[in-house]
Design a protein that fits this description.
About 90% of the residues lie in helices and about 0% in strands. By secondary structure, it is an all-alpha fold. The chain has one domain. It starts with a helix and ends with a helix.
Length: about 90
């Protein structure tokens, strides 16, 4: 395998990982920011209040984006299997 092919495969891996993780990470970021803002405004410093809404929102987003995530993961797996079959030749 050439180094350019390895770089391409690595870039594809990181792009796929980002696409799969991005909905959950963005949701956790936005919900965490909103809850922190509300805690600062109301002076409520309960730690559970910060984690529970974030956990529920991320779980909901994971369920809602499961179809997209699976399509991206399957397409990546198919590309990697195709590359692996070419190496064996």
């Amino acid at each position: 395998m050439s180094s350019s092919l390895m770089m391409e495969l690595g870039r594809d891996l990181f792009q796929t990982a980002l696409l799969v993780a991005l909905p959950a990470l963005l949701t956790a970021l936005v919900v965490g920011f909103v809850v922190s803002l509300l805690q600062a405004i109301t002076s409520i410093q309960d730690q559970a209040l910060g984690h529970v809404p974030r956990l529920v929102a991320v779980g909901l987003v994971l369920v809602l984006t499961m179809g997209f995530t699976l399509q991206v993961a399957v397409a990546f797996s198919q590309r990697m299997i195709q590359h692996a079959s070419r190496v064996g030749i």
